[in-house]
Amino acid sequence: MNLLHVQQKIEYLEHALKKITPHVIFLCAKMHNLSPKELEVIAIIASGTRFKDIARIDNRNIKTLSAQKRSAYLKIGVSNDVEFLHYIYWLSDKAIYATNEN
Length: 102
Hints:
- The chain is an all-alpha fold.
- It has a domain at about 35-100: Winged helix-like DNA-binding domain superfamily/Winged helix DNA-binding domain (Arc Repressor Mutant, subunit A, Orthogonal Bundle), CATH 1.10.10.
- The chain contains six helices and no strands.
- The chain has helices spanning about 5-20, 20-30, 35-45, 50-60, 60-75, 80-100.
- About 80% of the residues lie in helices and about 0% in strands.
- Helix 2 runs antiparallel to helix 3 (about 35-45) and helix 3 (about 35-45) crosses helix 5 (about 60-75).
- Keywords: DNA-binding.
- InterPro entries: Sig_transdc_resp-reg_C-effctor, Tscrpt_reg_LuxR_C, WH-like_DNA-bd_sf.
- This is HTH luxR-type domain-containing protein.
């Protein structure tokens, strides 16, 4: 993989993350009946913050955060972070489209 290809992927991910608003995360949680803790965990993932940092700041167990993530992903129907971010990006596009339609 060359440097240009890596740079393009980084730029794509930066663009995708900027489109993910708290509204879209809340919409996802509501659509999939996520618990408040599951909502918190997917918001952490979408923000790009590492579990290790959250665990240290909030004095929470990484295993607990991981279990909440697995539970949320099961409800959403994704199996990893990449699928989740693609789904949120897609949902963000749909939310923007619906807003522009009205």
